[in-house]
């Protein structure tokens, strides 16, 4: 019997997961769901899913594994829509950049007979300089050599956590265990702060005095720094991500503001040496990061080889090899 997997959300992330899983068609059957009929059709044509089901509850009723690759502002409602149709011992995995609030929603809305695990993915180094998004940019190796933050509520069945880790390994990435609070702290700097910085640069320039002329000469630097806030339908999602991770985001914004003030003070005082030292340090920091990110060899991480068949074998076993969790 084929393992039934449902992917909800067939944009870049969801379709890339499907394309990676397509290498195992002899073991898995992937059903895709998206709110857009066109996305479902394109995902099937690209080979990211074996079938589609536009009825959201029906799309998960036979699924052993449910992957939610949708914006955070759609997640709570989706939990509510699918909760009555999730089968016993199914594993529900979301890929949203914030986890603490999502874990609360999962506890509130998902049935006790399923298992929730959170993953916060990072794109692989091969695609770091690509700013495209959406289904057309989906790739089977999108997450190769990247890191996924893996968090699960206290008491989550260990085999469900192992299943999520094995899935990450199947993508060519490494799973790093965190808790929802730690994950949110890391993602505030890695994911949310760059987007807010882009938004701030846009607010400081677009429709401000002189913009009519500035827009004509704004070039690569401007395009690059504002690209983090150019994804379709991003404003609502970013607003919710920011508010849900408010304390961490405020802390990272304070650090950014302090850095800008230090730069301004160096300029205001004409302190060329301090300014040069500060900029050189920042440039070297980026060079080091790009180099480390490119190799994917992070000191301190568990780089044990992942047995790629383990993901499939665990699903084919006696439901994770442990007794099912009992309701109540």
Summary of the model, kept short:
The chain has helices spanning 12-21, 37-46, 56-60, 72-82, 100-109, 158-170, 180-205, 211-217, 220-226, 234-244, 246-269, 272-295, 310-316; strands at residues 3-8, 28-33, 51-52, 65-68, 91-94, 115-120, 147-151, 174-177. It is of the alpha/beta class and 328 residues long. An 8-stranded mixed beta sheet has the order 3-2-1-4-5-6-7-8, sandwiched between helices.
Could you list some keywords that capture this structure?
328 residues, alpha/beta, Rossmann fold, 8 strands, elongated, disordered C terminus
Radius of gyration: 21 Å
Q: Could you tell me the mean pLDDT?
A: 88
**What string gives the helices and strands in order?**
EHEHEHEHEHEEHEHHHHHHH
Shape: elongated
Q: Order of strands side by side in the largest beta sheet?
A: 3-2-1-4-5-6-7-8
Q: Which spans of ≥5 residues are poorly predicted at pLDDT below 50?
A: 303-312, 316-328
Q: Which CATH-level-2 architecture of the largest domain?
A: 3-Layer(aba) Sandwich
The helix count comes to: 13
For the record, give the distance between the C-alpha atoms at the N and C termini, rounded to a whole number.
Answer: 30 Å
Question: Your description of this structure?
Answer:
By secondary structure, the chain is α/β, with parallel strands linked by helices. The chain folds into two domains: 3-179 and 303-316, 3-Layer(aba) Sandwich (Rossmann fold), CATH 3.40.50; 183-295, 6-phosphogluconate dehydrogenase C-terminal fold (Orthogonal Bundle). It is 50% helix and 11% strand. It is built from 13 helices and eight strands. The protein has helices spanning 12-21, 37-46, 56-60, 72-82, 100-109, 158-170, 180-205, 211-217, 220-226, 234-244, 246-269, 272-295, 310-316; strands at 3-8, 28-33, 51-52, 65-68, 91-94, 115-120, 147-151, 174-177. An eight-stranded mixed β-sheet has the order 3-2-1-4-5-6-7-8, with helices on both faces. Helix 4 packs parallel to helix 5, helix 6 (158-170) crosses helix 13 (310-316) and helix 7 crosses helix 11. Mean pLDDT is 88; it is low at 303-312 and 316-328.
């Amino acid at each position: 019997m084929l393992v039934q997997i449902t992917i909800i959300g067939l944009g870049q992330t969801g379709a890339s997961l499907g394309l990676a899983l397509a290498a195992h068609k002899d073991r898995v059957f992937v059903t895709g769901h998206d709110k857009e009929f066109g996305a479902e059709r394109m995902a099937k044509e690209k080979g990211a899913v074996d079938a589609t089901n536009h009825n959201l509850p029906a799309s998960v009723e036979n699924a052993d594994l449910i992957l939610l690759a949708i914006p955070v502002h759609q997640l709570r409602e989706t939990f509510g829509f699918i909760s009555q149709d999730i089968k016993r011992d199914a594993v529900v995995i979301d890929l949203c950049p914030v986890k603490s609030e999502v874990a609360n929603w999962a506890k509130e809305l998902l049935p006790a007979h399923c298992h929730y695990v959170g993953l916060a993915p990072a794109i692989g180094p091969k695609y770091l300089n690509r700013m495209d998004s959406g289904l057309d940019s989906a790739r089977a190796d999108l997450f190769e050599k990247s890191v996924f933050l893996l968090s699960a509520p206290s008491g989550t069945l260990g085999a469900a956590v192992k299943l999520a880790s094995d899935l990450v390994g199947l993508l060519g990435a490494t799973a790093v265990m965190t808790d929802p609070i730690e994950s949110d702290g890391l993602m505030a700097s890695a994911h949310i702060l760059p987007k807010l910085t882009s938004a701030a640069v846009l607010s400081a320039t677009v429709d401000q005095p002189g913009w009519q002329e500035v827009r004509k000469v704004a070039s690569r630097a401007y395009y690059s720094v504002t690209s983090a806030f150019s994804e379709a339908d991003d404003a609502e999602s970013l607003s919710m991500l920011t508010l849900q991770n408010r304390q961490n985001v405020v802390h990272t914004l304070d650090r950014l503001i302090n850095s800008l003030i230090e730069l301004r003070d160096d300029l205001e005082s004409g302190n060329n040496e301090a300014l040069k030292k500060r900029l050189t340090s920042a440039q070297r920091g980026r060079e080091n990061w790009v180099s480390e990110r490119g190799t994917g060899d992070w000191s301190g991480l568990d780089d044990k080889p992942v047995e790629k068949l383990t993901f499939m074998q665990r699903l084919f076993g006696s439901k994770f090899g442990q007794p099912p969790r009992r309701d109540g």
